[in-house]
Amino acid sequence: MKKLIYYVIAIGFSLQSCSQDEISLDLNPTTFNLSPQAPEVIKSNNSFGLALFGKVSEGTDDNLMLSPLSASAVLTMLLNGCEGETYNQLKNTLAYPEGMDIQNINETYMMLVKQLLEADPQVKMSLANAVFYREQFNVKQSYKDILTQDFKANVQALDFNEPAALNTINQWASDNTNGKIPKVLEGISSDAVMFLMNALYFKGDWTYQFDKNKTAPSTFFLEDGNQIQVDMMKGAIGSKRTHHNGSAIIEMPYGRTNFSMVVMIPNDSTNEFVSNLDESAWNEITTSLDEQNEWSEFDVLMPKFKFSNEKYLNGQLQSMGMIDAFSPFDADLSGIADANIYVSFVKQNTFVEVNEEGTEAAAVTTVGISLTSGLPPSFNVNRPFVFAIRERTTNTLIFIGKVMNPLKN
Fold it and tell me: How much is the pLDDT for 1?
C-alpha cells in the first residue's frame, strides 16, 4: 500500500549497539520487589486499560490519551466502598482475579505504586489521591480510614455551596500535575456529595535524545489520504524494534530504562489496530521487545506533539460491566455512606507533550458521587500511531494514546 511505501522511504540508519560509555546514565533498570499477587494485579490493570482505551477510541479520529493506572487507582478506591452486585461488577470490570479479596488488592496497589515512584531518580513521577466530600454528608469512618491508610489519600470536607470548594478541587488537580491540568470541574451540582480523585504526573528525559538542530518540517500522511507538514524530530536513537501483525513497533527508553515509550504504527486502520490491542497482543509485543538485550541505534523520525483532552467514561465503563454503580436505584455504595448515593460520572483529563528532550504527561481521573434525586531500518513515524508508556520490569501500562494529527491540540 502507498502509505507503507512512504514509511519505507526514509533516511538510512547505522545498526550498532549503543555503548553505555556514550552516556553517563546507568542503563540497568531498577528491580522491583513485589508480592506473588502483583503480576496478576498488573495484568488486570493492563487488561482493563487496553479494553477501556479501545472503547473510548471507537469511532473517533481525534488525538486521544488515557491513563490506565490513574483510572484503575481511583476506581479501586471506589471499589472499597461498594457492596453486593455493585462490588462484583466493578471488580470484574477492573479485571481483578476472582480469588483476590479487596485487602490483597489494596496491599498490592500500595506496594506497586511505592516502587513505581522510586524506580528511577532520572524520571519524575508522582501519584496522588484525594477525596473531597460535602460538609454535613456523613461518610463512614471505616471508608475514610481505608482511603487514608491504603491509598494515602487527602480526605477533606468542603462546603460545596461556596465557590472556594470548586477552587480547592481544581487547585489540587493543578498542583499534582505540575500545572498541566489546571481544571477538572466547571461547577458542583446541588446533589453532588463526593469526588474521588487520582492525579498522575510523569516527566522523563529520553535516554538517547533527539538533536534539536535536526528538527524540521516534514510530511505526515493522514489516514484519509491527505498530507500535512509537521515538525519532525530526527536522531540516532538507542531503541528496540519489532513487528506485530504487519505493524511496525519501536521502543525508546527514558532515564535508566525503567520507563519507555512504545510507538506502534498500524499497517492499516489505526482504530482497527486499537480494537485488537488486548492484553494478549500487548504481552506479545512487549515480550518481543524484552527478549532483545541491547538498545540498538536507529535513525528515528518522529513528530513533536502536544495535546490535552477530557473524556467522560460512563458509557464505556457500563459496556464493560460496571452497570449498577451508575444507577440511582441499583447502586450499592453502602461502604461509603448509609445515604442513597450513586456514581454520577467518571471522567479523565489528560495532557501529553513529546519533544526532543523527552515526555511530559499527566492525568486526573475523577469519580463524581451524588445523592439519588430527581433521576525498514529507519523508523519514520509519519502517519497516525499509537503510543504507550510503561514500566518495563513489571510491564505496568501507565499511559496509552493515539496521535491521528500532530497539529491538533
Answer: 35
